[in-house]
Amino acid sequence: MNQDYIKPDNWSIIEEGFDTESVKSSESLFSIGNGAMGQRANFEENYTGETFQGSYIAGIYYPDKTKVGWWKNGYPEYFAKVLNAPNWIGIEIEINDETFDLNTCTEIKNFRRELNMKEGWYSRSFEAKLKNGTEIAVNVVRFLALDLDEVGIINYEITPLNKDAKIVYKPYIDAGVTNEDANWDEKFWEPLEVKHTGNEAFVTAQTFKTHFKVTTFMQNSILENGKNLNLSPTNFNTTTDKIQSIYAAIVAQGKTSSIQKIGGYTVSLNHTNTQAAAEKAIQAALALGYDQLLEDQKEAWSKIWEMSDITIEGDVKAQQGIRFNIFQLNQTYLGKDSRLNIGPKGFTGEKYGGSTYWDTEAYCIPFYMATKDQQVARNLLTYRYNQLDKAIENAQNNLGFKNGAALYPMVTMNGEECHNEWEITHEEIHRNGAIAFAIFNYYRFTGDYSYIPEKGLEVLIGIARFWHQRANFSKDKNQYVILGVTGPNEYENNINNNFYTNYIAKWCIDYTYEQLQRVSLEFPSDHKRIIEKTKLAESELKEWKKVADNMYFPVSKELGVYLQQDGFLDKDLVPVKDLDPAQRPINQKWSWDRVLRSPYIKQADVLQCFYFFEEHFTKEELKRNFEFYESFTVHESSLSPCVHSIQAASLDKMEMAYTFYLRTSRLDLDDYNKEVEEGCHITSMAGTWMSIVEGFGGMRVKNDTLNFSPKIPKEWEGYSFKINFRNQIIKVAITHIETTFSVDGTTDLAIVVNGKNITVSPNSPIAVSQN
Ligand code: BGC
């Protein structure tokens, strides 16, 4: 496995030279997506080397029967998983009667991949010598259209270099695919129909159990030197789940032959007749043609970049890192559909099974709120609202809660729990807190209160009820405690009184209580509807308050820090710096009991609380807790470095902030954790964005106003970003000398910079000096 082989470039991800060791990693890094579907960078032609095939369709899942060593009550019977979708990209190619396969070529020169993030396409080019001596130059461009989001396009060019060539193209679509990760080695797709007409072909299949119907389609054209030869297939190979069309071309040495393949999926989530929709999708793509589709793609991506780009001057690797993160986030989720969400691997791999984790609320929402229309973040909130009934069922049927208490799943595709380790499924309950926090954060940022009376309050009530029932009164402490949990730091299980969990539990109850008061005053009819629906009585509210007002928080007065959990100080407190590097990562080197006994922390835990509720604590408290906990943190979760980077910046520890920034932004590009072949860490990419905007830029929203306290790493000459704050776009450009603020539109924007009020007027940028 190779690390750190991507060439630095401002706008592209580039690999040069063919190395079988990098194939799976590059398949992840060069993945493409358009919010509706995604594709790992698998080769179109046959490849007999090691590969991880992955095509994905948003919202399509399969409930796999749970398989665990020792069944525990409360486990979900089935859990939904991301499915490898039928293959639409495949093109088997014969050249002078030999199947072309990069793994069997005798020579490969000038191999180059490029993922052009600015324009949204992926290309691969090389020269290869086949065993039969034929030398060819190949150039392939592939993209998933943003505008026609059911359609992908491939332009595959071959130029015979040393002799004429008989080229047989065998493009195919295939629903006979499997998942790398399948509990019972089952097939997940049931083929229904295989059809072809002329240059078009269709395979319709449905998922077993969930019965999502998908028509995978293709349309092929064969060209020479850019001119369509209007060839028809000479033959078809058909099985019950696959169809291959055969085209033959004789190509003179030096001429360029190409196949253009339009392909993709139409799904029953969006169409009643997927076959008819597939025909329409092909017609829409053909009407535009390859060149126009590519132009439209560039245009669509330039609109995305216009709002979401972050520029960094003087540090190409940092620039490439942040653009890669922003690009992947936009490839994964564009916010058009409230049934969809952001999986930790997006469309780049299967790991993490389901799509939605607390990552969305804790890490992703700020990025989408600030770089898109506010409806996008609202859609993400609505996703949870639509799954409230299932969260209530989960708490009641599986875990013994009552009276409308809701526990959202740790991992989900459809509202049902997808995870089955007791210490996570049953104990990592803090996720409920992040879902409530996101409602608060959405209102704080957008000022759109309407979400709370319309939808949010019901979610808050379910969550507050859960916390009220989950806490118990300790006679010994004369306070309420929360026992047997796993905090964000998954290197501790079944602990008592995780500070973060207790804090967010109390906060959720208090916040819900306040919103009930506000909604009753300002939206009485919504209040009435909600009280009737939830049967919430005053007496229950009093019980909630008792818990919130008397919650126990573990603390060390001597050290001046909150304790991650009861008994944390009993551990052998050897800081990470004194840990033998050969022992790391500890999750790969140590047995689980040893990890649990150790003081080592996977990701921000007490510090996650300081991140969410910064204003509740003083800078001195942050400093003490940061210095204490960071010294034990191994950052073995991708979600860890970003929070630490933000806090280090706010504590003026700029070297540290910068190191954490590089680690978060190039986690996948440099493959820090040696696992990128499984897919990219999509949700933590939003954390990278936060490290710049909230970390270095110091952006916060306080009292309905944007605040900044800009800082700049010494390694950079300057950087800039844009924020959509309540439908007004503000651009912030920071150098070592000054920060310049400018706004679009026609209205002034009042902001606070380093504690001072400033008004920014349209067309007159204001510069504030750095000191
Ligand atoms: C982290 C969780 C996170 C999950 C998915 C785990 O390694 O510990 O906090 O939700 O990955 O990103």
UniProtKB/TrEMBL annotation:
One Gene Ontology term from the biological process aspect of the record: carbohydrate metabolic process
Active-site residues, Swiss-Prot/TrEMBL: 490
High-level lineage: Bacteria, Pseudomonadati, Bacteroidota, Flavobacteriia, Flavobacteriales
Record's protein name: Maltose phosphorylase
Organism: Flavobacterium gillisiae
Segments forming domain Glycoside hydrolase family 65 central catalytic: 323-690
SUPFAM superfamilies: Galactose mutarotase-like (SSF74650), Six-hairpin glycosidases (SSF48208)
Superkingdom, taxonomy of origin: Bacteria
Residues where substrate binds: 358-359, 602-603
Family annotation (InterPro entries): 6-hairpin_glycosidase_sf, 6hp_glycosidase-like_sf, Gal_mutarotase_sf_dom, GH65_N, Glyco_hydro_65_C, Glyco_hydro_65_M, Glyco_hydro_65_N, Malt_Pase/Glycosyl_Hdrlase
Entry-linked Gene3D superfamilies: 1.50.10.10, Glycoside hydrolase, family 65, N-terminal domain, Maltose phosphorylase, domain 3
One Gene Ontology MF term: glycosyltransferase activity
Stretches assigned to the Glycoside hydrolase family 65 N-terminal domain: 14-268
